[in-house]
Every structure is written in C-alpha cells, then in structure tokens.
Amino acid sequence: MQQNNSEVGSLEACLELDARDSLAHFRCHFELPEDTIYLDGNSLGALPKATSQRLSEVVQLEWGRDLISSWNKHGWWDAQKRLGDKVGRIIGAELGTVLVADSTSVNLFKVVAAALDLHPGKIIVSEQANFPTDLYMLEGLIRHMGRGHQLRLVNSPEDILAAIDSDVAVAVLTHVSYRTGRMLDMAAITAHAHARGALVVWDLAHSAGAVQLDLSGADVDFAVGCGYKFLNGGPGAPGFLYVAERLQDKVQQPLSGWFGHARPFAFEPSFEAAPGIQRFQCGTPPILSLTALEVGLDLILQAPQEAVRDKSVALGCLFKRLMEQECFEWGFRLASPPDASQRGSQICFAHPEGYAIMQVALIEKGVVGDFRSPDILRFGFAPLYVCYVDVWEAVQKLKLVMQERLWDQPRHRQRAAVT
Amino acid sequence: MQQNNSEVGSLEACLELDARDSLAHFRCHFELPEDTIYLDGNSLGALPKATSQRLSEVVQLEWGRDLISSWNKHGWWDAQKRLGDKVGRIIGAELGTVLVADSTSVNLFKVVAAALDLHPGKIIVSEQANFPTDLYMLEGLIRHMGRGHQLRLVNSPEDILAAIDSDVAVAVLTHVSYRTGRMLDMAAITAHAHARGALVVWDLAHSAGAVQLDLSGADVDFAVGCGYKFLNGGPGAPGFLYVAERLQDKVQQPLSGWFGHARPFAFEPSFEAAPGIQRFQCGTPPILSLTALEVGLDLILQAPQEAVRDKSVALGCLFKRLMEQECFEWGFRLASPPDASQRGSQICFAHPEGYAIMQVALIEKGVVGDFRSPDILRFGFAPLYVCYVDVWEAVQKLKLVMQERLWDQPRHRQRAAVT
User: Fold this and answer.
1) CA distances from A212 to A27, A157, A203, A209, A307 (A)
2) Chain B within 8 Å of A113 (Cβ-Cβ)?
3) Smallest CA–CA separation between B349 and chain A, in Å?
4) Which option is the CATH number for A11-49+304-403: 3.90.1150.10, 3.40.190.10, 3.40.50.2300, 2.40.50.100?
5) Complex ipTM
6) CATH of domain B11-50+304-403
7) CA distance A415 to chain B (A)
8) Where in chain B is the domain with CATH 3.40.640.10?
9) Which residues bind pyridoxal 5'-phosphate (chains A, B) (predicted)?
10) What is the pLDDT of residues A345-395, one digit of tens each?
11) Up-side HSE of residue B252: CA atoms within 13 Å toward CB?
12) A388 noted as active-site residue
C-alpha cells in the first residue's frame, strides 16, 4: 500500500496515500462538519450532500403536489423492493431477495420466526456478546411463541461451530461484532450449519457498505441489516432483510400486514402472502426515511465494493500501527482481532479510563469515536469519507489527550449514542 | 350553522360559511396544489408548509452537523415519547400513555399480543369489514402464538355488542370504518366489554385528528392509529399506540427491542422492559419521518378539537345534502350512516360505475376522492384545509361528470391508492 519514500505512518505518507486514493473523491459528496474527524460512521453514517435536495423534491413535488397519486406515479409503492434490490447489489444478493423495511429489530423478528417455522428444532444459537437488541428480540420471540425454544449462547466466537450441532434449528449471528469489530467467517459457518441441518440468520448491521459480502456465494438463508450506519441512510433509517430465493415461498412471517398481501388493494378479509420477498413487508413504509436511505445507497453503489474494503483495511491497519507507535505507552490494549482479515471496518482499544478518554476529552478535541461499556474505545472507518490524514490526526489528538491527561476532569456522564 | 339569507347549499351560502369559519386560516398553513380539491386527506394528509423547512434543519443541522450527538442534543432519543404525548393531547389520553412508533400494523401486533397475555380467553372479536390489515395482523399473530386463539368476526356493527360475551379475550375494532365512515360508540362498547371481563383494542386510523376522542374518559385499554391521514405526518408516517396507564407495567409485548429496554445503553445481555409506555418501543426509530409527523401534530394542536369536529360534521352534511340535490338522480346511494353523529370525517356513496366515475373522470376534473371496491366512492374532509366552497365545487364537478358521462371511457385500471 506504500510505494514512496516517506516514513511509514508519517503525515507526509498519509498525505500521499490520500493523493493516490481511488475513493478520495467520494468525500466531497458528504456534508462533514469542519474541525471534526468523524470515526463513528458505524453508529450514524454521515449526510450525503444530495440528500437534502432529494428529500425536498419528494416532500414538495411528490407529497405536496401529487399527493396520494404518488404511490404509483413516483414509485412509493415499490420503494421497499427497489431499495432492497440496491442493497442486494451491495451485499452480493440476487435481485428479489432483499427488502428494505421496518427496523432491523423488527426484521430480525420476522426472519427468525420464519426460520423456526421451517425447522422442528428447539435450539437457537447466538453469542452472549451479540448486539443486545438481537438477543432481546429472540427472548421476546421465544416467550411469545411459547413452543419451548431455548437460547444457547456461546461466550466466544471460537465456540460457535461446536455449538451448532444437529439439535439446532437456527443460529442468529452478527457478522461483525459491534463491540470488537471481529468478523465471522460467513461462508464456513453457514456451510457448517447446513451440514447439520440448521439454518443461519446473519445480522449485517456493521458489515453492509463496508465489508465485501457475497450472500449468494455463501448460500445464506436469512439476513438482516441496518440502513443508518455504513449505508448513510440517516438517523433511524429503515433496516433491510434478505431471504434466499429457495426459501421465500416456503415461509410465512408473523407480521403479515397488508403490504405483504398478494393483492393488497383487493381488501380481502383473509391474508394470502405475496409471492417472493414482498411477503416480508408489513405496514405502510415511511417514505421520507426511505428517500434519504435511497440517496445513501445510490452513492455507495458508485464505489466498487472491493476498493471500499481495501481502503477500510488500510485505514484500520494504519490506525493500529499509529496507536501502537504513539499511544500504547499509556496502557491501551487492542480489543479487536490483530489480523485485519478478521476485522470489519472498525478497530477497538480497551483502556480502564476509556469512558472519560472518549466522551470527555477526545470528542471535545473534535475526534468523534464511540465508547462501549466497560472500557472499549471504538473507531469506525467509513471509507467513502474518512481519509488517511484523518487517521493520522485522530491518533495525534489522542496522544495529546493522554500526554496532558485531558480526560482526567469532571465527567459528563451518560452520553447516549446509538451503535 | 347558517344565519344568512343565501339559499342553503348555494355557492353564496358556502362562501359565507367559509368567511365565518374559525378554522379557515389553517388552510394557508398547507401546500395545496392549485386546481385540485383534495378530499382524500383520510388516505394521505396534505403537506404542512412548515414541514420542508423543519426537515431541512434536522437534516443539515442535526444529522449533518451534530451527527451522532443529536440523539441527546436534539431530542431524537425521546422523540417517540414526545410525539406520543402530542398525539395524546389530540386523542384525549394522559401524558405517558401514547407512543409514536413503527407502523400501525406493527403496533397492532404489539398491543393485541399484550392484551392476550393479560387474558386467558381464546376468542378475539372483530368485524368482517374491519380494515384488512388489522385482520391480517390478527391472523399472523394467532398462527404465530399457536395457542388456539380464534377470530369471531361479525358481519354488521349492530352485532358487535352481542359478540362480546364472557368468552372473549379482546375485541379489536376500528373506531371509524375506512369503507363507510361509520363511527362506533367507543365508550359504550368499551364499558360493555369491561363488564364481561374483555379488553378492547381500538384502531383510530380514521379518527385521530378529525373526530373528538376521549380515551381516558372511555377507560380505553389499548389503541393504535395512523400518522399519515388526518395528522398530516407524510407518506407512511409512523403510527402510534396507546396503553392505559393502569395496564402498562403488567404487560409485555413480543417485539422487545433495545429501545424498549430499561437501560438500553448498558448493553445488558437480557431484556428488562422499561417502565411505562416506553416498553412498547422496539428498534431505532426513523427520525426523518418522525420529524415530518411532529410538524403535522404541532399544527393540529393549534386547532380546538371541538371546532375541528364541528366543521367536519358541517362539511359532511353539506356534501350529503348537495349530493342528494344535484346527483342522486344518477343512481348514487348513501353508503355511510345518514346520521352525522354516527359518521367520522368522511362520507361515502355507492354507484355501480363507482370505479370509473372516481378514478377515470372525477380525479381528472381535479376532485381527488377515493374508490373502495366494489362500488364505493369515498370523500374525506380534513377540516384544517377543506373549505365549504370545495364541497360545493366537488359536487358540481361530479354532476358534470354524470351529465356528460365523462366516466364512460376507456378505463385506467388498477390505480393503487393507500387508505
């Protein structure tokens, strides 16, 4: 990645990397606040410059002028499928297998319920350290179904394969951990599960838009993901769900609202599921939030996913090297896998004073990362708008925070942030 | 309602009614297309003029500039409860009993599941002519719970009371029928159900913002409703749900996502429901769609609900009288209750050629109503932006359509529209 004479990790070397970056021009398509280095695109992606204008068109011309006729005239009716197909191109899924709908949590409920309908087993495998809402949704689902399903939670990613035995109905796994950035081997785990007759649901919240994915190639059964992180769809953007084509017409999902009906405008009194992925739609979708998400999707679709992943890895490796070089003397410990091929698009460090370092001092200095209890500092790299010099400056500022003990001050407690 | 010398139902009389209308000034707060008389605000409410500016602020200043910190700084975190309390003021519910969240369909699933948890009965009463998505959601819920619940569907509103006997767990009823505008007696049915130990879930989709409601006074258990009709929240705006304070801490709902957790940012591995209404939250909410809805709520909160209802009744009565006078010779039949006190904010007429009259001819003439299979022409009155002269003109144009048989032309089939 380095073909010049500047010292590796120097400001000059970073400037040269930016100058040679094939994705560098994407940065000008985002509104980024001055004086901020934003390394939290894995919580909330930055604002594409085109979003405001597009939203304004939809509000004024579609809603305001064409009113109810816009459901047909402006493609509102098909928006969930149209956006789904765009997400599909990003995650390596075939046309007609992805839908943008509801929230990630609601989508998880739908696809896990569908999976449990297909499989007589009673065991659901997941990780103790999975993103909590996934576990919470599983708890609610199990209690509500009342059919004696049980959660089998593993304590370490190394235990996942062994936990998926022939008693298992479905494994519900997050591809890239929100806490450590550790990335699981989607293809290997899916194949292992299939060999034992189990299904897998993948949560791609921290993967889509930052990591190369090939859902078709990995023969994935079900997946869900998030629109407001690396897809830059805006706060609380709708989530997505994927169902393999081979399963779609075999499954039903419990949230069988009218948008999932075969003939929604026939207003028939009983439910008949639409063919294909559309049976996973439920109620009327929030068009304004879908509009913003579509702008984010259209932008990321212009970037080759391979280049996105390469840059993400390079940014993460640079950050790690600079942290080791500049900051490890103050007691930071790498909390992500050391091997970049096992990381998503973030890198995490543990520090006993992590909360104050991040929430009191570093954000004050204009470097926005994230803190995750009990001691994790989390830095995310959105390759479309984070550059190499950002990484260099972020580590320099963290060094300054440590040198001057800027974190050792009265604390602002309980800053809420959304992963 | 008439205190002048103009002939009742004449253009002059309508002009005078508009001149005396205490809500007339609200019309200038909406963007309404010229040459359109919009009588479909019960499908999609019109665009408030303030929406674009407010959305632009949220996009540029909150998302774009303040990024992740906006969850606290700009009240995103509490938006569902804040908006819920605003809806509560519109529907006569106490603070802390209403939440804006998800879609109406998803909310129905949550509250019916919660109700069924409270009651050992197996019978769910509803109407065969209920809005289909409510029935579809009940079907999905019953199948998914697998506990032998059964739907008892009545064919006529007159049969509802008799159907709610002591075997019934919950009645799921729509307050104002989407098809006929018929309004049920919320207080009487709720009291009847309570006397037999049953619970009631009210769907207020066609009521909130147009009909005076007193959920507290009627001792309602649960309710849901829609943000994109008379609340003018924009296409697919999030829905709302209401849970009586006395029930909140006794119930759980199955969609137990992290926004419903007692301590969402503690990232605990198991679920503990938040106290109060917030346990009915699920995933991360769509902030941009919530933003537009809040503008609609703030606008309607400026109008006394009693005046809104009075004008709605007056518009409906005027429409009925003019239809009888000008158009009944062509075979229209009133499909709504003749008594205004039994109607919501719409009036419906049946005609064998209803589809073509509405979808081919009348909309072409600039009068936007709605058609509902098999033969219903539906006209909705949003009292904040529909005026008396609109009603007069709409009937004159319908008369012209009938006189000149403008509907009797090659048909544009299958216009999708959202109730």
Assistant:
1) 20, 20, 14, 8, 9
2) yes
3) 18
4) 3.90.1150.10
5) 0.95
6) 3.90.1150.10
7) 7
8) 78-300
9) 105, 203, 206, 228, 258, 284
10) 999 999 999 999 999 899 999 999 999 989 999 999 999 999 999 999 999
11) 17
12) no
